[in-house]
Amino acid sequence: MRIVAAARVCKAIRFAFFVAMIGALFVPDKMNRSRAAEVDAVGVVAPIGFAEIVERVRPAVVGIRVKTDQRTSDVPRPRPIPQGSMLDRFFRQFGIQITPDQGSEPDTSVGAGFLISGDGYIVTNEHVVTNGIDIEVTLDDGKIYSGRLIGSDPQTDLALIKISAAADLPYVRLATTEPRIGEWVLPIGNPFGFGGTVTAGIVSARGRDLGEEPYSDFIQIDAPVNKGNSGGPTFNVRGEVVGVNTAIYSPSGGSVGVAFDIPAETVKAVVQQLREKGRVTRGSVGVYLQEVTPGIADALDMKKAQGALVAQLDVGGPAARQGIEAGDVIVFLNDHEVTSPRDFARTMAAVVPGSDVNVRVLRNGQALSVTVTAGELSQAAKGPSDKQEKLGKEAVLGLTLAPAALVPGAGEVGVVVLEINPEGGASAGGLQVGDIVLSIGGRPVAAVADFNRLVGEARGRAKRTLLIRIKRADAMNFVAVPIDQAHIDE
Known about the structure:
Layout: H1 2-24, H2 51-57, E1 61-68, H3 86-89, E2 107-115, E3 121-124, H4 126-129, E4 134-138, E5 144-153, E6 158-162, E7 184-189, E8 197-198, E9 201-208, E10 218-221, E11 233-235, E12 241-248, E13 259-263, H5 264-277, E14 283-284, E15 287-291, H6 294-299, E16 308-313, H7 318-321, E17 329-333, E18 336-337, H8 341-349, E19 356-363, E20 366-373, E21 375-376, E22 393-394, E23 399-403, E24 415-420, E25 436-440, E26 443-444, H9 448-460, E27 465-472, E28 475-482
């Protein structure tokens, strides 16, 4: 009975469900009222756009195509980039470089620029137009002009070119204030040869140091920029140029949203000199500087690591003539506090050659003030030389040293580091094989015995760090070597 009754109940349920399903086909419900329909956003408040800004400033942005003769050009050919180097991390990949075949066809690079005056002066990147034998400028309206290089500055990667037109041309102005982090910015350029391309983003950071150019604090933006944007402007929402696109961070070569601009303040100063005299002059006092690391600060009994340590001076240069010495720490230049060698270089670059500057230094814990007449920065570079040393005797701190006079090519002064024991105290101090040790704590080292004696004296005074002046290749520097755990062999 129970089984039969259950069967009858199940049959009744199935019948009721069937009737309900049939009814659903003919009776409207909520599902029937949700059929697809045409939709739009008419009447909805639209987000703020940039069309009006772009319409006003884009006529002043130009495309640049440059031909260079590969037979006479000294532009370095493509070569492997050392892994982990600054070039490995920050590629200059805005200008398209077409690698030629084995023939004699010229190379072609593509970039961008912008007009800064109605008579045809155009700002772009130095690396876009360098060694160009033919510069072609295309305006936003499609007109093509021949460009003439007025001057360039490799130190900031800026160049000024000139075109001649029958009428006044539209131009833009450089911003007078720095952009704030988070502000909207609009790069316009010539990526991959597609002229007049606009992208948008924000200022991500300011004061970026790429390690290559000592005279610019780069603006970082997240707007997409690619090959061909090089030299093009980045605008704020007032239509002012806040920077010039110059570099991107890209492991792949394409935009990953990390780009760098030369600030408008730098552009103004450089372009003014290029326009007036075709080149840029910078003040110099003839010093070679290095960072004051915590170890060096400890060796100099400084409370904190700041300033710029004088590692080497030009013989007969302004600083040397006025009594500045290697080992001095520059802390002020005129009224500007010097926080690093880069900071000193940027401040010194703005000094007019021939003018006097006040340089304040720390020497052996004492503050000194020196007046120096600035000279002009030389662009000549010194090339390194390699040495291979094979003789010497063991010294303290796990070093094997030999008098420089006994090592071919090492000169007559100091002792040469021939070998470094990885378990010795000097292994963590920055010394390298081939370094020539000139002094310890300002006292000269002429022999291995001098080195051992000075280290022993420092340890006897409970010094934790030695400040050692060295010559490496053709440059002189200081290294801070810890000695608190060092074993001294008599």
